[in-house]
Please model this.
Amino acid sequence: MMDTLELMETKYHLMESSLSESKAVLAHDSCNLAMIFIGQLNGRIRKVWAVSVN
Model:
């Protein structure tokens, strides 16, 4: 799975290479949603790990 730093690099690369403002905004929003999902997933994994350790 991609980590958030790699995703941020991809986001800015996609935004730079976009041919229109709307595509740049779409790349920005899509990557931000993916980072939110990764954060939520990592939070769930930490909770499951904490429960299994106890």
